[in-house]
From TrEMBL, chain A:
It is found in: Cell membrane. The keyword Transmembrane applies. PROSITE patterns: ABC_TM1 (PS50928). InterPro entries: MetI-like, MetI-like_sf. Residues 87-280 form the ABC transmembrane type-1 domain. It comes from Thalassovita autumnalis. This is Aliphatic sulfonates transport permease protein SsuC. CDD domains: TM_PBP2.
Automatic annotation (TrEMBL), chain B:
PANTHER family: ABC TRANSPORTER PERMEASE PROTEIN MJ0413-RELATED, ALKANE SULFONATE ABC TRANSPORTER-RELATED, MEMBRANE SUBUNIT. CDD domains: TM_PBP2. It comes from Thalassovita autumnalis. Residues 100-270 form the ABC transmembrane type-1 domain. This is Aliphatic sulfonates transport permease protein SsuC. The gene is ssuC_2. It is a multi-pass membrane protein. Pfam families: BPD_transp_1. GO terms for cellular component: plasma membrane. Its main location: membrane. It is found in: Cell membrane. The keyword Transmembrane applies. The chain crosses the membrane at residues 29-46, 90-108, 120-142, 148-169, 200-224, 244-266. One of its GO terms (biological process) is transmembrane transport.
Length: 291, 279
């Protein structure tokens, strides 16, 4: 609670800077318009104008909030929550690709980690490549994957999910390998003195002790997966999804639309990561790993 | 048929060689040879599959074709490299990391800012910041300045969070010792806290190398002059010139690894005293 006031101050400062920047960035356009209409703007009129332009360079926060409300709340009220003009529809498209990619990436990552931990050959040959691939900007491959999979006849959700999977499986592999190896020699020896089979050793010692590592990497993987889904929507030619909204907005100069899609994506990321945090706390509590 | 047989044989040889090498006592040689053999085997199988099953070059070009394209279009690749990496990614990386470092020191000085900015910074670091790209392209124009701006925004928060964390890495005993020496704030910062923060700072610098390249490449999808790696990738995909796309990806991979490796080497030289480097 002690940090509530500082956080509030910082957030308030961000809003003040945002409004100020909106005035500064939108003034040239407002002055230009006023000159053409031969009117002299007073300071208050100028400020009011910069905060209510149709295609501002930087929309003021209340404009973005109004746009988000128009495309979510009002659409729901009209009973058209899933029409193509609704941001809920676009968020859902992105969210479904994110979740599918996240689940595939996590599953694949855990399997690969188990292989690496139990197989020395795999550990020595695959692990260095997994680490090296972290340094490669994989997102650059996104347009190619989309187009190639389209050519093979796979389109829609799966190509985007593939990119999400690609981005999200690396953190899971690295985290799980660390986690499955985290039991120390003493604990492993204890399992042996109990004559545990390797299956029992895995299910009762290695897997439970890897949980904190798994959740830490799941948070990273979820954020990466969302970025993958958004970038995956760019090359398909702006059909649907938050990435498509970003691209369409940038084509037609609809800055308010870009910002609302951006805020929506941020809210989505925050909600997903918070959800994993919640599951983490519940699971670890049930396992007795945290109080 | 010949190619498929070739693929199967190279798979068998690579596999047997790795199993045999992995069974040997671990040494520098084996831990280097095994991943190399694995990589070479993957490339050979790729070549064999593409030629054996006559996969259309529009779907997946063979590694040899990619190599030829790479050798033939070095001037295009070089031009794109300069535009995206040197002008876009590198200038943004230096600017973003530098300003994050300075602001971290300011934040560290004032506990109020620390308690307020850190949660916000942590929150922002998890957001899909790439989405800022179209806005920044609109503000700063199509040339490299907008790409550098995207990179600055992308690297800023991970770097800030890491540096602030690093500045808190000294323990009470060490700070008390500095106080008994009657050292000023500046002396404590320079001689104790910054050196102690080095491993964290380098961690931030390493994480952000990949982010910088991703930012610079993705920002080009939203508009760029007629050169740059992101531009080349998106237009070549449209022309189905996948061999050129793969050549660009090879460049991106080499640059990414070299960038990361360079920072890691610098870390080794500057934090040689740290336990994690002494092994």
């Amino acid at each position: 609670m002690r940090s509530l006031l500082p956080i509030f101050t910082v957030v308030a400062a961000i809003f003040v800077i945002w409004y100020g920047a909106a005035v500064a960035l939108n003034t040239p356009w407002a002055k230009d318009q006023a000159k053409r209409n031969n009117v002299e703007l007073s300071f208050t009129e100028l400020v009011a104008d910069t905060w209510s332009q149709k295609k501002p360079k930087l929309p003021a926060p209340h404009q973005v909030v109004a746009e988000i409300w128009k495309t979510t709340g009002e659409m729901v009220a009209k009973g058209r929550a899933f029409s193509k003009r609704s941001l809920i529809y676009h968020s859902w498209i992105t969210l479904s690709a994110t979740m599918l990619g996240f689940v595939m990436g996590t599953g694949f990552g855990i399997l690969l980690a188990i292989g690496i931990v139990y197989n020395r050959v795999m550990d020595m040959s695959v692990m260095p490549w997994v680490i090296a691939s972290q340094t490669i900007p994989i997102l650059a491959v996104a347009p190619m994957i989309i187009v190639v999979l389209n050519a093979v006849g796979i389109s829609g959700l799966l190509p985007k999910a593939m990119i999400s999977m690609y981005l999200s499986f690396f953190p899971v592999v690295v985290g799980m390998v660390k986690g499955l190896r985290s039991p120390d020699q003493m604990q492993l020896d204890q399992m042996r003195t109990w004559n545990a089979t390797s299956g029992q050793e895995f299910w009762r010692l290695r897997l439970p002790s890897s949980m904190p590592f798994l959740f830490a990497s799941l948070k990273v993987a979820m954020a990466a997966s969302l970025v993958g889904a958004i970038v995956g929507e760019l090359p398909t030619g702006a059909v649907a999804g938050l990435g498509a909204r970003l691209l369409a907005g940038s084509y037609y100069g609809q800055t308010i639309q870009i910002w609302s899609a951006l805020i929506m994506a941020a809210a989505l990321a925050a909600a997903l990561v918070a959800l994993i945090g919640l599951i983490q706390r519940m699971t670890l509590k049930k396992m007795g790993m945290v109080q | 048929m010949m190619w498929i047989a070739f693929g199967v044989i190279s798979w068998l040889i690579g596999w047997r060689a790795n199993v045999w090498l992995a069974a040997q006592p671990k040494s520098r040689f084996t831990s280097l040879a095994v991943p190399v053999i694995f990589g070479v085997t993957v490339i050979l199988i790729w070549e064999a599959v593409v030629r054996g099953f006559e996969v259309s070059p529009v779907l997946l070009p063979a590694p040899s074709v990619i190599a030829v394209t790479f050798a033939q279009s070095t001037h295009i690749l070089w031009q794109d490299f300069v535009q995206t990496v040197i002008k876009g990614a590198l200038s943004g990386y230096v600017l973003g990391c530098g300003s994050a470092f300075l602001i971290a020191i300011v934040i560290d000085r004032f506990p109020f800012l620390q308690r307020g900015l850190l949660p916000v910074g942590n929150f922002v670091a998890a957001l899909p910041i790439v989405g800022m790209a179209p806005i920044l392209v609109m503000w700063f124009g199509f040339d490299w300045q907008s790409k550098a701006a995207v990179v600055v925004v992308m690297v800023f928060f991970p770097m800030l969070v890491n540096t602030v964390e690093g500045l808190q890495a000294t323990d009470k005993m060490q700070r008390d010792l500095m106080r008994t020496y009657a050292s000023s704030y500046g002396q404590t910062l320079l001689k104790l806290r910054l050196p102690a923060a080095m491993p964290f700072i380098f961690n931030g610098l390493k994480i952000t190398t990949t982010l910088a390249l991703i930012g610079a490449i993705v920002a080009e999808f939203f508009g760029s002059p007629i050169r740059g790696m992101g531009f080349r990738i998106s237009t070549s995909v449209g022309q189905l010139a996948l061999d050129l796309v793969w050549a660009e990806i090879v460049v991106a991979a080499i640059v990414g690894s070299a960038f990361y490796g360079g920072v890691a080497l610098l870390e080794k030289a500057m934090t040689f005293w740290h336990p994690s480097q002494r092994g």
